[in-house]
Design the sequence.
């Protein structure tokens, strides 16, 4: 019997052959390629919701100052919120050591050849924390403006960091990352007098890619603008509910 | 090079569905906005499928064009990037209709 349609062996003409050379069969799949990651990310999100942890995924190109922003934020806020940090890098635990020096629990994930964190890595990294004691988990992704955009980690928001020593057209060059972020931190604004960086043009580019994106100008070195970022963080973390991100 | 991880996922999904049968053709869809480069997936496929039931299989990649609907005037446009405006009124507030796909469509098995 034909396994495609259940018909008998008599000759028939409805689009499939029965000879040995025609034995190929079509199997419909219709499965998202990232379905496994997305399933694990949903699991992470459910766990974070259950434990009442607000989670951010910080993404940027290498050298934009993600770790410096975290260091300053943790030193300024560690008495206000209970934090933990997951540090993603291809190699070394240098960044984890910098975070550990602030006294906040940190878990380094080395991705080796991998260019991004995925939901599986994050799921295991957070096993190292007592989630029920945390308010905010900050995940510093691998410095890369391309690949991390595709991988949901179970976070409430992606926060993209761009520094004024980079090109102001980065939102146009790497649109996927800026499209999927809810907040953009424009870092190193203390250097603006020394660089050719048009802040308004950069903001316009970011809003072209993502009209809803919030943009805050900060300097992790001078502290300029950090209060606005802390206020956003406190508000967003305070509003978390049922695993859904707060409205911005 | 997240295409390596993407391709490993494609092979994993196909292996599970092929259930031991030899795979002749894999058909996937990659949207133009997905951030995944089809040529790089093609490049990774041979290495990722080695010693699996997909070894020697043909990979067919269809690009899914990006389309969006304007929140201002409701016109539908073909776009090439997230920063393209509505082709009718020039506004940037668009809802993406297609182009973000990353999907294994079907297999041909022996």
Sequence:
């Amino acid at each position: 019997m034909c396994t495609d349609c259940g018909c008998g062996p008599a000759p028939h003409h409805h689009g499939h052959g029965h000879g040995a050379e025609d034995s190929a069969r079509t199997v419909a799949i219709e499965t998202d390629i990232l379905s496994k990651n997305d399933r694990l990310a949903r699991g992470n999100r459910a766990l974070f919701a259950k434990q009442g942890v607000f989670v951010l995924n910080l993404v940027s190109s290498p050298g934009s100052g993600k770790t410096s922003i975290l260091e300053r934020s943790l030193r300024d806020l560690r008495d206000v919120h209970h934090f933990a940090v997951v540090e993603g890098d291809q190699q070394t635990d240098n960044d984890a050591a910098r975070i550990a020096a602030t006294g906040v629990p940190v878990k380094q994930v080395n991705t080796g050849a991998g260019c991004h964190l995925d939901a599986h890595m994050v799921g295991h990294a957070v096993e190292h924390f007592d989630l029920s004691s945390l308010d905010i988990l900050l995940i510093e992704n691998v410095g890369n403006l391309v690949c991390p955009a595709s991988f949901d980690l179970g976070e409430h928001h992606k926060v993209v960091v761009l520094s004024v020593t980079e090109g102001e057209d980065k939102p146009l060059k790497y649109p996927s990352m800026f499209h999927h972020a809810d907040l953009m931190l424009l870092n190193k604004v203390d250097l603006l007098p020394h660089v050719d960086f048009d802040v308004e043009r950069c903001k316009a580019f970011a809003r072209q890619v993502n009209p809803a994106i919030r943009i805050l100008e900060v300097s992790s070195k001078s502290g300029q603008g950090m209060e606005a970022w802390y206020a956003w963080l406190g508000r967003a973390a305070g509003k978390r509910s049922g695993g859904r991100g707060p409205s911005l | 090079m997240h295409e390596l991880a993407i391709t490993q996922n494609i092979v994993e999904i196909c292996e599970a569905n092929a259930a031991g049968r030899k795979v002749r053709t894999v058909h996937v869809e990659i949207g133009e906005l997905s951030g995944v480069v089809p040529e790089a997936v093609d490049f990774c496929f041979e290495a990722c499928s080695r010693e699996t039931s997909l070894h020697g299989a043909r990979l067919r990649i269809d690009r899914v064009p990006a389309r969006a609907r304007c929140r201002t005037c409701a016109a539908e446009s073909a776009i090439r990037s997230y920063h393209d405006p509505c082709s009718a009124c020039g506004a940037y507030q668009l809802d993406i209709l297609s182009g973000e796909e990353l999907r294994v469509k079907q297999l041909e098995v022996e």
